[in-house]
Amino acid sequence: MKLYSTNNHDLNVDFPTAVFNSMPLDKGLYMPVNIPVLDQEFIQQIDQYTLPQIAFKVASALLDHAIPAADLQKIIDEAFNFEAPVVPLEAETYVLELFHGPSLAFKDFGARFMSRIMAYFLKDGEQLLDVLVATSGDTGGAVALGFLGVPNTRVTILYPKGKVSEIQELQLCTNGENIHAIEVDGTFDDCQHLVKQAFADEELNRKLRLTSANSINISRLIPQTLYYFNAYAQLRRAGKKEVIFSVPSGNFGNIAAGLLAYKMGLPVKQFIAATNVNDTVPRYLKTGVYETKPSIQTYANAMDVGAPSNWVRIMDLFNQDKAALQEVLKSYSYTDEETLKGIHSIYEQFGYIACPHTAIAWLALEDYKKENPQENATGVFLSTAHACKFPDVFSEEMSSKIQIPVHVQELSAKLKHAEKMDTVYDSFKSYLTTFY
Ligand SMILES: *Cc1c(COP(=O)(O)O)cnc(C)c1O
C-alpha cells in the first residue's frame, strides 16, 4: 500500500511509515494513492458474509499486500470480536450500534486495529513504543483498552481533571499493566498542548520512541470503513436495497471512512454529517466558505471540534469538487437544547435511549427526511457511544433503564490510579523520563 500526503501528492510512503508517523512532516494527512473498487459480485452477495469476512475483504483491498493474508486475518479476528448490529426502530429507520466494544464507543474499531497493526510492525528487540494521547474522554478509553497488554508498547493518557464522566475515568484509570493515566489540573486543550510539546521536544524524542494514537492515524481510518459495509449487508438481509447514513461528526474521521467506503463501491444514496453547534462543515456546505472556529463545549463533547482534522481527506476523496461532494453529503447542526429534545423524543417514540451524539444523528436524519419527503431509502443513524458514558443528560426514568454492561460494572470494584499533574511541560517531561 502506498500513501501520499494531502499537502503533497508526490510524497509516497509505505503503510508502516504512515502508521508510525501518523502525520507527514508537511502536516497534511496520509491518504491511499490507490482507492480500490471492490468487485460487484462481492457487493451483490455481501449479505452472505460475516463481519470478520467483510472486514478481511475490505482491509485486504485497501492494504494491498502490506500484511500477508493469514496475519491480517488474525489481526481482524482479534480486533473485531464484538458485534455492530443494525437495530430497527421503525420501518425505514435503523440505528447502527457501534458501542459494543470494550470502551463502549465506535473508537474501539480504530483503536483495536491500530494497536495490533503497530504491534505487528514492531520487530523483536526494537525500542519500546511510547504512545501518548490526550483525551476528552472517549479516545483515551478506546486507546487504553486497545493497547492493554499489547507487547512492546506503553501508553500514557492525559485527561482533564473533573471533565470526563465516571465511567470514562474508570476506563482510563483501572487498567494497570502498560497503561498509565495522568489527571491534568486543566482543560483538554492543556492536555493536548502537553502532548504536542512532547512530540516537538528533540531531546525527549532521542530518548523515547514516541507515537501518537489520535484519530488522524490512517490505521484508525481503515477499520472504520468496514462497519458501513457490514451494516449494508445486514440491511440487505432485511430486504432493504437503498441506504442513507447519518453520522455524528466531530473530527469527521467516522464519516470520512464512510465516504471512503462509498468510493470503494458501497452503494449509499446519501450521507448526512450531523454536528452540534460546532458547525464548520454545515456552514461550509451552505455558504461555500470554510471557516474554522474555536470549539464550543456541548453535551455531545466528543464532537466539540471547531477545525475538523479529517475534512481535508474528504475534500481529497472528491478531488476538491464541492459540487460533487454536495450531491452525496448533507449536513445539519443542533444546539444543546435541541439535542435534549431529540433524546427525549427518541425515548418517547421508540423507548430507545440514545447518547447525545447519537441523538444528533437521529435529528439530522429526521430533518433530511422532512426536507426530502419523496425519499424512500432506508435511514441508518450511527450510534457512536453507549448512553451510560454520558449520564448527565437523561431523566431519572431513563437513567434507571440504562443497562451498564457487566464488564464495565466490574470496573468500579477495581483500584483507580492516576498520576496528578499540573499543566507545566517540565512536570510531564520528567514523568516520562524518570518516573516510569
Ligand atoms: C469521537 C466521537 C465522535 C466523533 O467522531 P469523529 O470521527 O471525530 O467525527 C462522535 N461520537 C462519539 C461518541 C465519539 O466518541
TrEMBL record:
The keyword Lyase applies. Residues 4-80 form the Threonine synthase N-terminal domain. Its EC number is 4.2.3.1. InterPro entries: Ser/Thr_deHydtase_PyrdxlP-BS (IPR000634), Thr_synth_N (IPR029144), Thr_synth_N_sf (IPR037158), Thr_synthase-like (IPR004450), Threonine_Synthase (IPR051166), TrpB-like_PALP (IPR001926), TrpB-like_PALP_sf (IPR036052). One of its GO terms (molecular function) is pyridoxal phosphate binding. Keywords: Amino-acid biosynthesis, Lyase, Pyridoxal phosphate, Threonine biosynthesis. Pathway: Amino-acid biosynthesis; L-threonine biosynthesis; L-threonine from L-aspartate: step 5/5. Residues 96-378 form the Tryptophan synthase beta chain-like PALP domain. It holds the Pfam family Thr_synth_N. It catalyses: O-phospho-L-homoserine + H2O = L-threonine + phosphate. One of its GO terms (biological process) is threonine biosynthetic process. SUPFAM superfamilies: Tryptophan synthase beta subunit-like PLP-dependent enzymes. Signal peptide: none annotated. Its cofactor is pyridoxal 5'-phosphate. Belongs to the threonine synthase family. NCBIfam families: thrC. This is Threonine synthase.
